[in-house]
Amino acid sequence: MINLVALFPKHLDLNGDQANLKVAKKRLEWFGYEVKITAIDKGQLIPSDADFIFLGHGSMAAWADLENEIQIIAPQLESFIARGTAFMAVASGYERAIELGLFGGSLEPTERVSKFEVADLQGREVLGYVNASSKAPVIQRQGLSLGTQLHGPVFSKNPALVDEYFAEILAAKGEQVPIAPSSGSKNIQVISEIVGSVWKLERELASE
Amino acid sequence: MFYVPAILIGRLVRTAVRLVRPGGGSALPGLVLSKIAPGLLAKTLSKFPEGLLVVTGSAGKSTTTKMLVAIARAHGKVVFTNPSTANIAQGFFSSIIERSTLGAKISGDVAILEMDEGHAAEITKRIKPRQVTVLNVLDDQLDRFIDPALVRDKLAAVSERATEALVLNADDQNVLLINKKVHNPKTSWFGIENQIIAATEHGLGNAPTYLSELPRPQVDTEIQEHGSAATKARVGAVEVSFDLPNRGIHFALDAAAALESARRYLGSSFDAKLAAVTLAELPPVFARGEVTQVNGVDVEFILVQNPMSFQLNLDNLPKDQEQVMVAIGRDVHDPSWLWTVDMKHMPAVDIVTGFNYAEIALRLAYDEIAIGEIIPDLDVALEKFFSLPAPKSGRRTVIFSADAMRRTRRALGFVDPEAVER
Fold it and tell me: What is the pLDDT of residues B187-243, one digit of tens each?
């Protein structure tokens, strides 16, 4: 069983960011894995069997409400990351993670950008939507930690990134990584075709 | 006479656009006019003897405005209003081109305008509204507005400028926060009996404030019973009943807002029974549950503009729905919000189309909702969809965003909403 852990999902889903977990779960299931999503709400701690921890994007009001929770959970999160547990943070969650020292980069203010963006992640192009006003790198990897300004369901339109990233997570966990999907091959193929269309349009919009 | 050349230029641009695209609406004439004579809007709107009434908030502006205008007209008022798609600055300038004299005067007792929450804050800096109605704050258009708290600030600024009456929604904590900030002594409230809201699957979809709940104020106009259409309300001290032209709790909220807004504006001449009859006789706003015939088959058009309207419309979709087309157009700048909608009530979709066809197809595909066909070109999709054999169960349904709606109307030869006078 692969345990995908969502930190405060009721608070941090402003742009459909929690859909990243849905996408990861679906794809892993289509590759034949058993997957669960565990929601961590206020007052709860990260479970010890977490394989992937996700910090989404929230409103100013949501972050104000979570301030104490973040202080409580930050040291725990840090020790999970130090032990090699995969961690992903998007948009304001990524900015909060930078503040906590979990990623490099600066949060110096800059003019707000609200647009599609094709960003570079270690030689791979990643497509998403950015709406931010800080100078943090658009996307970065540190070990199994993935941080990005690309908000919302960035996994949905970057399936190759998801598959390779989770292959690394599974390998680190000592699981055998399947080469081909099992039951969900039709879904994977359908999505692959649609993603091609999404890229065609949004790459063009990103260059405007 | 200062504005005569500007209005003439605006009319010229309008004529040129109509020559190029017959029957099609365009923001261009209004845009041109707004650039060459930015002061014209305040000048025109300040000439109505009974002033300006503004309806604003994230969702429900068109329906509420239409209801309020109808009630005011039923009471004998001559009303200037804006078409539902022209609720931003260029749209107001387009309306001036359509309706004003060369001296920038539009006849009428009062202007009742729906205003986009961003533009309302700007426009009311220059002309103080007599009355402001604030509907709600949703997680909506975040690519523009960034955060619901910033929308709340804009609406508070508009609320502060109401000189005679401020009409607020008692069932949105964001609006209660606006009231706390503004403290306008001329405030009154509308709402829906809370058990009715509690019985819905997704509530009213207001942006959460994550603060201790502020107590609900005493409500002046309240929806007390609401079936699929049959509605009972208390307006001031008077109880009324009427059937709403559209289904769904959000239309009941709009009706409450319109009734309270009319009660405040019309004062002692307000007749609650006449208002209720007016609401019952209203035709549905296009694409808010209106049923139209295309190729001899009933079609329901459903406009989805934000997570709430998508969600509430999906929740209200008949269970035996058989034929569905989904068209998401260019107005959806950042399609991320499509992923905040719970799609569990979405039936199998026959055709996916519109500028953002790939994004909505991706959304549906990850939920493993069957898609018959993906057709990028909206015109081709419309032709194919309306050529299908009539459905055996349920009603043929088109779910579309605002841009796809405008293009669909044009393709089907319906009157362009920007040319419609309400």
Answer: 999 999 999 999 888 888 899 999 999 999 999 999 999 887 789 999 999 999 999
Count of CB atoms situated within 10 Å of the CB of B259? 33
pTM beyond 0.90: the answer is no
B97, with CB counted inside 10 A (0-12, 13-18, 19+), is buried
Q: Answer yes or no: do B362 and A187 touch at CB < 8 A.
A: no
pLDDT for res A180: 67
Please give the torsion angle defined by the CA atoms of residues B377, B380, B381 and B386, in that order, rounded to the nearest 10 degrees: 160
Residues facing B79 on adjacent strands: B110
* Rounded Cα gap, residues A81 and B87, in angstroms: 49
Q: β-strands B230-235, A150-151: how paired?
A: unpaired
Give how far A97 is from chain B: nearest CA, Å.
19
Q: If you write DSSP's letter for every residue of chain A in order, what string do you get? A: -EEEEEESTTTSBTTSTTHHHHHHHHHHHHTT--EEEEEE-TT----TT-SEEEE-B--HHHHHHHHHHHHHHHHHHHHHHHTT-EEEEETHHHHHHHHTTSS-----EEEEEEEEEEEEETTEEEEEEEEEEE-S-SEEEETTEEEESEESSGGGG-HHHHHHHHHHHHHHTTPPPPSS-STTHHHHHHHHHHHHHHHHHHHHHHT-
Residue of B nearest to A157 (CA): B362
Determine contact: A134 vs chain B, CB below 8 A.
no
ipTM score of the complex? 0.95
The alpha carbon of residue B180 is apart from the nearest alpha carbon of chain A, in Å, by 17
- A57 interface with B at CB cutoff 8 Å: no
Structural domain boundaries in chain A: 2-206
The CATH topology of domain A2-206 is Rossmann fold (3.40.50)
Q: Which domains does chain B have, with CATH numbers?
A: 50-84+107-281 (3.40.1190.10), 288-419 (3.90.190.20)
Q: Which of B366, B373, B377 to probe by mutation at the A interface, max A CB count within 10 Å?
A: B366
| Binary contact (B210, A157; C-beta < 8 A) | no
Cross-chain CB nearest to B362 (options A11, A151, A191): A191
The answer to whether A58 faces chain B, any CB pair under 8 Å, is: no
Confirm if A27 and A166 have CB atoms less than 8 A apart.
Answer: yes
Residues of chain B with pLDDT under 50: 416-422
pLDDT (tens digit per residue) in A80-113: 999 999 999 999 999 999 999 999 888 999 999 9
CB of A171 within 8 Å of any CB in chain B? Answer: no
Instruction: State pLDDT tens for residues B62-100.
Output: 889 999 999 999 999 999 998 665 556 677 777 777 777
* CB-based contacts of B43, cutoff 8 Å, min separation 6: B3, B104
Chain B contact for A184 (CB, 8 A cutoff)? no
Interchain pair A131, B357: CB under 8 A: no
CA–CA distance from A77 to each of A63, A80, A172 (Å)? 17, 5, 18
